[in-house]
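Students often ask why we bother predicting the structure of a whole assembly rather than each chain alone. The short answer is interfaces. A chain on its own may look different once its partners are present, and contacts between molecules only exist in the joint model. In this exercise we take two input lines together and write out one structure for the complete complex. Read the inputs first and try to guess which parts will touch.
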Amino acid sequence: MKDEELQQLCREIRADIVRMIGRVKSGHPGGSLSCAEILATLYFREMSANPATPPGQRDKCVLCKGHAAPALYAVLARRGYFPREELETLRRLGSRLQGHPDMKKTPGVDASTGSLGQGCSIAVGMALGARLKGSAQRIFAVVGDGEMQEGQFWEAMMSAAHFGLTNLTVILDHNGLQIDGANDDVMNLGDIRAKLLAFGFDVIEVDGHDTIQLLDAYARKTDKPKFILAETVKGKGVSFMENQAGWHGKAPSADETEQALAELEA
Amino acid sequence: MSALKIRGTKAIRVAYGEALAELGGERPDLVVLDADLAHATTTCVFGEKYPQRFFNLGIAEQNMMGVAAGLAISGLTPVASTFSIFGAGRAFEQVRNSICYPHLNVTLALTHNGLTVGEDGGSHQSIEDISLMRSIPGMTVLVPCDAIEMRKALRAAIDHPGPVYIRVTRPPAPYFTEDDAPFTIGKANTLREGSDITLIATGLMVCQALLAAEQLEKDGISAAVINMHTIKPIDGEAIIAAAKKTGHLITVEDHSIIGGLGSAVAEVLAESCPARLRRIGLQDCFGQSGTPDALLEHYGLTAPHIAENARKFLGEKA
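Now the answer. The structure tokens for the assembled complex follow.
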């Protein structure tokens, strides 16, 4: 997929996200909209993620910030893991599309996540497993910034460096906001770059909405586990949601959904 | 009726390490994780033999549970160990969400539980682990009663689809079960028939229950003894059959009476076959420092206490 197509795809993914959450009147639009480019570049360009490839041979992505499930579902549907019409069933009783990713229910979901801080540990285990089996499989973990307040996140980072997991890439969707407000106000994360460097990662800073920068960062060869610090905007693409913590876990009304779709589809 | 034949003494955790190392040769997919307690849990025996498949995660149990989940997703068969208080307690939510929610093939063989932790005291004596683990959907809970049964339990656990908790105890303990005794998950073993009362015990308390039954026999009381090595799924048929036969039952566990074996048996009885029940175990209190033997004596978890309980119980009016 070409760069321009990828950018168009991200607009469509954002529209899917707004439509899905608006319809069920429940979900997390802010952090779903902020990681559209990250997930789209992974699934459409970087990862070996063809649904026709046996799961054991595909690259894997752990969406540690599982509340951004709508973004992942939109990407997976467009990648061909399940029909796009199924997106309408998000969060409904009996749906394969749970509020948070469920690997047992949803085709293409590589790990069940949503309880913050746990995903990176799972990704470390997958990376260890791939290496042990001599597989070329690569493991990607997409984390949120608020999630880094969990102690387990740092346990996982320590172990990734300790085991020298060069097949692991952690991507931070750094939108700077969490439910109760700005990271800096709720619990300041300090110098994230310096912390990850000190933990033994190679750190690459990018504009998380610039697909070319993301792809360049993925391609960079490192001899350590890789941490991509992607600067993003919470609620990206919907004017009234951008940089508003209030849109972390609030669904748009019917009017707001219409307005958001008008902006995204303009 | 069969007499208790003690054939030797071995800590169940030592048998665990040996069994792990043995299975490592048969199962190239077996990987073992520990959290800086490899000598205490005895996973170091496996680690020395198969260093490539052994991962020490340091003092970080929450991460260990997630890493075990990731290894399982990769198609490997992880067995993770630490003390029960940390594995089942501290990392409870990681066990629940990272391992059990996706129903992964992870065995948690957690050691050092109950009063028999001993001198380390109440902070390290997990008396809630059975309760916590059995409350998680899809989790199987095994409590081997001796070194022989430990080996069978480990084999059964890694062959079992889905998560399994094995409660592995610390101190040297008598082994008495037969090498060829069956071990089927969810199927209790009746070790002694009896007609007056049934002692349902688990883990190290099985031996104490058998000793208590021998003492009761001298008083003319016929006590059956059931080795409830699987707490979940609990063998309801065995419990109901015992209730119908003896009418009186006593559960014995080195664990809180809340949520453990006693509760599991009470649930079956209350729903299917009301019968008279006493629960021996920690009576909603923490343990303390002391030798394992002194603690079991102090908290009433030895054969004479069990026998005395049975006598009183049978003497009470319904």
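Check your guess against this: DSSP finds ten helices and seven strands in chain A.
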